[in-house]
Amino acid sequence: MIDERYRIATIPGDGVGPDVVASAKAAVEVAGDVLGFGVDWSEYLVGGASIDAHGVAIRPEDVEGCREADAVLLGAVGGPKWSDPSASVRPEQALFALRGGLGLFANLRPVTIHPAGAPRGRRPADRPRAHRGDLFRRAERALGPAR
Length: 147
Fold this sequence. Notes:
By secondary structure, this protein is α/β, with parallel strands linked by helices. It has helices at 17-35, 48-54, 60-68, 93-102, 140-143, and strands spanning 4-11, 37-43, 71-74.
């Protein structure tokens, strides 16, 4: 029985992003079946896909759709097709618009510490590691608790 439903905005993005997001969605659906929650999915074109379709990296209505969701599942954006550094519209502009529009401040990546850089007396395995994937966190001091 489904106890609760969540609204998740998906941004498949470019390159491997659509495959990664599809697999993540499947995993969330299985988790929902096991744990008793459902998901209402929405999808937005962002990054290179949006540049090709709309001429911009992200549209304001797409930022608003993500804001209205309970969570955002973001794939990769960009790729060789859109890698011209002198282009006026670039895929990563979507990430900046999402961060600003959603009041987010961090884009964490997997991290490991080389043994030579570890503090004395601590092995790298003792150090905290970032979660895999792009994780955004709210700046709670500035914006208050996350909803």
